[in-house]
Structures are given as structure tokens and as C-alpha cells.
Amino acid sequence: MSEQTTYPSLEHELRRLGDNLANLLHAAWESDERKAIEREITERLERVNRKITEATERVRLGERLQDAWQMVHGPQILREVEAGLAETLRRINDELSRRTAPAHETSAQQPSPEAAGQVKPD
Known about the structure:
Elements: H1 3-6, H2 10-29, H3 32-109
């Protein structure tokens, strides 16, 4: 008896392993379960694609409506915002002037320590 007939050759077993793996992959690829998963994934991707398309169209429509609204109302709104900001700044400046005016009047009425001769020379 020769060794070749007693023990299967390594080459033969590797070939069998390759064939078995190919058959397993082919069977898995052709299985109903894989096909069902593929159909489900395809349906969900198509649904996501439809939702994205709808959202994109809504955004485009919204942008067109916003552009049209701004074209009609934009200058008026800018004038109103500008007037409101100017009025707010005027009120802030008036209040700051009122709060700082007594301090300026008090310091202007009192002579500085140097002018009163109260500072000791170094």
C-alpha cells in the first residue's frame, strides 16, 4: 500500500474544501432567506430615497416662498429693524448719559486735590 492511497493528498482536500465553500456560498446566495432580506433592504432604501426626495422638494419650495416673501417684505422689515435698533440705542445712550451726568457734574464742581494744594510733594 502506498502512502498516496492511504492518506488523501493535501491538494485533494484543499480542492474539496474550496468546492464545499463555493457550494455553501452559492446555496446561501440563492436561499429564500437571503432573497427576502434583499427585498426588505431594497424596499427600505427606496422608501428612504422617496422621503429624501420629498424633503428636498419641500426645502426647495420653502426657499422659493421665502425668497418671494423677502422680495416683497424684505425692505420694509429692514427699515423697521433699523428703526427699532436706532430707538433702542438712543434709549440706552440717554440712560447712560443720565447716570453718568451726576458723576461728571460732581467732579467738575470739586477742585482736584492738586489744585487745592492737598497733594504732598515727593
